[in-house]
Amino acid sequence: MGRKIAVVSGKGGVGKTTIACGLALALAKKGSNVCLIDLDVGLNNLDLLLGVENKVVYDISDVLKGKCRISQALINDSAFEGLYLLPSARFEEQSFDAKDVKLLSDKLVSMFDYVIIDAPAGINNNLELALASANEVLVVVTPHVASLRDADKVISIVKGKEFENVQLVINRIRGDMVVRKEMLSHSQIQKLLKLPLLGVIPESDDINIYSSFKFERISKSGSVDAFMVLAHNIKSDKKILFDYTSKYKGLLGVIRRNLKRSI
Amino acid sequence: MKDLSGKVFNKAEEILLNDKVKSPSMVAGLVSSEIYYVLSQFFEIQRNSFSSNIHAEADGVLNISFNFKANRVLIKKQPNQFE
């Protein structure tokens, strides 16, 4: 039986979709069968990040309404055999029944090793849908107070339900700023939110540049390694942390830090 | 080197703590009426003596207490099973 993981945050723009997408790609690269469900209804972008936006014919609302079979709505990422996307409804405001979405995710989890659910930002019905369809939760935060505050509220909601695993992923952390003590470190964030830390994804220019971001396009970025470590942690239930500060330490590190600051 | 991250940490800690105190205050208000009802089955509670208090400790743990004064314990007659 596979695992159903909801990726939530609270605040918008912290990189939930990027984390869901990057994690799914990394798991697929490691040989797992992965299904991404886009539950960010109306504001869906997973198809764009995977570069399959032109392949979308049916979406989750069509499956739930019985207009098509699950297999007809699933889109395969051509780069990875085991990676599929169930796209979100694109335009209309949809209100799904939590039981129907849970049944759908239960069907999918029998077909895949991992079902990763991209939840919407905010505290609303669609967040409840995402939580109802998962049995594990990844809370994505950035090292900013507003993100931490919103995440703390979402954690309160998540802790009120029975989940097997609730873990933290820190996104967009900058090693140079952490070394200069200008940004919250992963240990400070973990101390504030009191959740086990599953992984850190450093800020990456490559991810910002490539709107249609795929692993083969950003293969030289440190973020790829960070996503692979995150996927390894998910698969093996370990807590190995990607060292995002190493290249900013020592003599070369001082030069890199200063160069980064002057830019 | 200025420890800006330490200042941000302190600010974040303060904000999260304030948020945590606000929501249980509301919850405690709701719960206290339920607790008052249950306690009034067993005690004759002095008028205006019932209060609830939320105190956030330094480590973020919430200390929630309900306090009241009672004039007497109410002993209710148990129904006789042979009646």
Structure, explained:
The complex is a heterodimer of chains A (263) and B (83). Chain A is α/β, with parallel strands linked by helices and 263 residues long. Chain A contains 12 helices and 8 strands. Chain A has helices spanning 16-29, 46-50, 60-64, 70-73, 98-111, 125-132, 145-159, 175-179, 186-193, 205-209, 222-236, 250-262; strands at residues 3-8, 34-38, 75-76, 83-86, 114-118, 136-141, 165-173, 197-202. In chain A, α1 packs across α11 and α5 (98-111) runs parallel beside α6. The model of chain A has no long low-confidence stretch (mean pLDDT 87). Chain B is of the alpha+beta class. Chain B has one domain (4-73). Chain B has 1 helix and 4 strands, in the order αββββ. Chain B is rod-shaped, with a radius of gyration of 21 Å. The interface between A and B is medium-sized, with 17 and 17 residues.
* End-to-end Cα distance of chain B: 83 Å
What is the mean predicted local confidence, pLDDT of chain B?
79
Count of domain modules of chain B = 1
Which structural class matches the secondary elements of chain A? alpha/beta
> Largest sheet of chain A, described in full?
8 strands, mixed
Radius of gyration of chain A: 18 Å
Number of domain units of chain A: 1
Give the helix tally of chain A. Answer: 12
How much of the sequence of chain B is in beta strands? Answer: 15-25%
CATH topology annotation of chain A: Rossmann fold
Pattern of helices and strands of chain A: EHEHHHEEHEHEHEHHEHHH
Low-confidence stretches of chain B: none
Distance between the termini of chain A: 49 Å
User: Largest sheet of chain B, if any?
Assistant: 2 strands, antiparallel
Shape of chain A: globular
- Counting helices, strands and paired strands, the structural category of chain B is alpha+beta
The percent of residues in helical segments of chain A reads 40-55%
